[in-house]
Amino acid sequence: MSELPEYVRIVEEIFDKYKDKEFLYVGKRIQRWDAIEKIKGRVLFTADFAKYYRNAVFVYSVRTKYAHAKIKSIDISEAQRYPGVLRVITAKDIPGVNDVGYVIPDQPLLVSDKARYIGDIVALIVAEDPNVAKEAGELIKVDYEKLPVITDPLQVIDLRTLKEKEHPLIHEERGSDVVAHFKIRKGDVRKAFDEADVVVEGEYSTPFQEHAYMEPEAAIALPEADGGVTIIATTQCPFDVRKAVAKVLGVTQNKVRVIVPAVGGGFGGKEDVANELGAKAALAALMTGRPAVVIHSREESMIGHSKRHPMKAWYRHAAKRDGTLLGVEANIVFDTGAYASLGPFVAWRATVHATGPYRVEAARVDTLSVYTNNVYAGAFRGFGCPQVTFAIESQMDALAEKLGMDPVDLRLKNILREGDRTVHGQLLTRDHGVGLEEAILKAVEASRWHEKRKLFSKQVGTLRKGIGIALLWHGNSIGVEGADYSSATLIINRDGSITFRVGLIDMGQGSQWGMVLIASEILGVPPSYFRVEQPDTAATPDSGPTVASRSTVMGGAAVVNAAYKLRQRLNKVASTLLGCDPDDVEIRAPDVYCRSNPEKKVSWSDVVEQSFWLGIPLQEFGYFRAPPAEWDEETGQGAPYITYTFGAIIAEVTVDLETGGVKVDRMVTAYDIGKVINRVGAELHAEGGAIQGLGYALMEEVVHNKDAYVMNANLSTYYIPTIHDVPDEIIPIFVEAKYRRGPFGAKGLGEPSINGIAPAIVNAVSHATGLRFHSIPLTPEKVYMALKKAGKTLF
Amino acid sequence: MSVIPREEWDKYPDIEITLNVNGKDYKVKVKPYERLLDVLRYKLGFTGVKEGCGRGECGACVVLMDGKLVPSCLVLAVRANGSKVLTVEGLAPEGKLHAIQKALLDTYAVQCGFCFPGVILAIKALLDRNPNPTDEEIKDALSGQLCRCGSYLRFIKAVKLAAQYIREGKEYFDESGARG
Amino acid sequence: MVICIPRFNVYIPKDVSDALNALSQRKDLIPMGGGSDLLVLIRNGIVKADTVLDLWPLRKELAYIKREDGTVRIGALTTVSELCESDLIKDVRYAGLADVCKKFSTPFIRNIATVGGNVGAAHPLSDIALMLLVLNGKVKLLSKNGEREVNIAKFFKGKRRTVRNHDEIIAEVSFTETPHNSSTAFIKFDRRWGHAMGYVLVGAYMQLRDNIIEDVRIAFDSTGNPYPERVWTTEEFLKGKEFSDELIKQALNNVLPKEMKRITDYRASAEYRLDLSKVLLRRALLKIKSRIEGGG
Ligand SMILES: Cc1cc2nc3c(=O)[nH]c(=O)nc-3n(C[C@H](O)[C@H](O)[C@H](O)COP(=O)(O)OP(=O)(O)OC[C@H]3O[C@@H](n4cnc5c(N)ncnc54)[C@H](O)[C@@H]3O)c2cc1C
Ligand code: FES
Ligand code: FES
Question: Which CATH number does A6-30+485-625 carry?
Answer without folding.
Answer: 3.30.365.10
